[in-house]
Amino acid sequence: MTVSTEGAAPVRPDAPSTEAGRPRTPSASGPRRVLRSRGALLLLEAVVAFAAALVLPLLARGFKLNPLNRIAQVSGLAAIQLRFVLLGLLCVAAVVLAMRLRGGRHFDLAARIASAAIAGLAAGFVAAGAVVSLLGTPWPMFGLNGDSGRIVEWAHAVANGMPSGSPVYPPAPLYTLGYYAEWFHGGNTAYAFKDLQILGAAAFGPLVYLAWRMLLSPVRALAFGVVPAFALIDAYKPYSQTVLALLVPVLVAMVVALRRSGGESRRKVLLTGAGFGVLLGVLFLTYSGWFLWSAAGVFFAALLYFPWRTGPLKGAAFMGAALAAFLAVAGRYLRVMLSEGQTTKDYNFRFDNFTDPAYYLMWRTDMPGKVGDWPPPGEFGGVGLFALVTFVGLGVAVWLGIRKPLVVTIAAMFISAWVMRMYIASHMYETQTVQLYTRTNNQMLYCGLILCALVAHLVSLRPARRRTGGSGGAAAAFPGREGAVIGALCALLLLLGTAASSMSDRYMPAQDGTYRILPYVSHTVRKQDGNCPKFAPHGVCSKDGDQSWLSYIR
Question: What Rg do the C-alpha atoms of the chain give, in angstroms?
């Protein structure tokens, strides 16, 4: 189901090439050997990324500190950062060494492995921050309160063959938690949820990296896919944001595959379509909201890139196979959503429901803490510089990539989410329901950041094409590709380390009404053996834990 990259170093279409782009004589085995080689390399990247994601959380388990002490929190973040940078620099050093040895024969392989490792390490940083914030308590973030409590209760029910408390809630997280609890925690879904919060955050980076590898080369997947996704990474309920971060590249790859289906064999068309259908079905079972907000945009892109001239029957077969596979995986849940989902209303008005609906650049969460002027005043008609950059980036990306499904599909998903947001918000007074429209913030922000990053991607492709076409002037204007890769890895390492530290810090326990209250409550809930967690404030705990957070949302 791998789609050939748009960001790989271009080569002449009539010349077979190696991974590094050097011409070679075609072998007798032909495409099969190439596919096996690519599959083996992608498997290597996956193993490296997931292994790297576990290193920092495992190391953080040995930290000796009190997570409720602010100095200890800062020390813990610094300790994680130190290990992250040292491990990341080892990856960069391996790329430098590969450049200098044996004529750079293994440079591309080293860059591939380093990119996968850094993606894993960055997510592992956030997971390690969750480990630090929950040191000494077996409970998940927020204990048995709020969403944590409901998910724990529902997962326990489905694991014991009973219906969950909400038929429309995505079943995959509940069954995963329920069975994980049976296997590793004797059925205790509350204690198991702590593990899955940490593991879910760690898996975010590798999964997003591998999804973008369907479209982009390794360093570009790290820069233009993983980095924007770190605006979404979340250790509290990691699965919902992970689905969004995966859905964008998967839908783009599907549109690209649809566009090419007219020239593919019938067997490949059916298998590729079915593969995308299964993948989308799994994502839908994990979190379905993003599908609703993306549907119109993806439908537009599919019509635009449907192979009307090159093979409409194969295009229809592709879509039919995808739909059949999707229904086979998620059809039952889709029926529930179409029936009972229409009668399930969200009446819980939150902080963001009272703010300007056109402001989407930052979600202050359901517990925003102390808030001054919100949204923050901007320089241009109330709009800040960051908003201007994202809108300009969207326009420039469409300008440069108007013929590329990678750009058009993401722009369509942005506009689709914007329209759905305004549609639901415009009926809010009439229906007195919210329907989670503010969560479109995340989709629009993610798509906007990707489009800004793709501007650099599209610009960088132009001199590369001129260089391969024989224009010496363009080649002289830029240093060698090896230097660009190493420089990009260094910059991305520091950028991801800084972003991951910030995202980890917002989960350091504190009684301040922000998301820090989530792990704070975890330290105040009495354990099942009757004792208090190790770092319970003043050694005091209770069945439900500290409930002062309620005062911040009233």
Answer: 24
Judged against a pLDDT cut of 90, whether residue 189 lies above it is answered with yes
* Backbone dihedral angles phi then psi of residue 154, each to the nearest 5 degrees: -65, -40
Nearest-10 crossing angle of helices 289-305, 238-260:
10
- Measured CA distances, 522 to 52, 511, 527 (Å): 27, 12, 10
- Widest pairwise Cα distance in the chain: 75
380 forms beta bridges with 383
What DSSP element (H or E) covers 328?
A: helix 312-339
Amino acid at 264: E
Taking only the tens place, the pLDDT of each residue in 318-339 is 999 999 999 999 999 999 988 8
Annotate 364-379 with DSSP letters as a single string.
--S---S--SSSPP-T
Distance, in Å, from the CA atom of 498 to the CA atom of 494, rounded to the nearest integer, reads: 6
Mean pLDDT of 156-162: 89
Write the pLDDT tens digit of every residue in 421-450. 888 888 888 888 877 788 888 898 999 899
Write b or e for each residue in 150-175: b if 16 or more Cβ atoms lie within 10 A of its Cβ, otherwise e. ebbebbbbbbeeeebeeebbbbbbbe
Phi-psi map region of 9: left, alpha, beta (phi>0 left; psi -120 to 50 alpha):
beta
Please report the DSSP string for 81-150 in residue order.
Answer: HHHHHHHHHHHHHHHHHHHHSGGGTTHHHHHHHHHHHHHHHHHHHHHHHHHHHTTT--SPTTTTSHHHHH
How many C-beta neighbours within 10 Å does residue 546 have? Answer: 21
pLDDT tens-digit profile of 42-79?
Answer: 999 999 999 999 999 999 999 999 999 999 999 999 99
Which helix (DSSP H) or strand (DSSP E) does residue 457 occupy? helix 440-468
What integer pLDDT is reported at residue 16 of this predicted model?
A: 39
pLDDT score recorded for residue 476 = 41
pTM above 0.85, yes or no: no
Measured CA to CA, the distance from residue 148 to residue 511 in angstroms comes to: 18
Dist. CA 428–CA 412, nearest whole Å: 24
- Which among 529, 453, 407, 506 has a CA at the least distance from the CA of 141? 506
Angle, to 10 degrees, between the axis of helix 189-212 and the axis of helix 146-159? 100
Residue written as token pair 């204690």: 191
CB contact at 8 A, 311 and 265: no
How confident is the model over 90-134, as pLDDT tens digits? 999 999 999 989 888 899 999 999 999 999 999 999 999 999 999
Q: What is the pLDDT of residue 434?
A: 78
Cβ atoms of 291 and 243 within 8 Å: the answer is no
| 309 beta partners | none
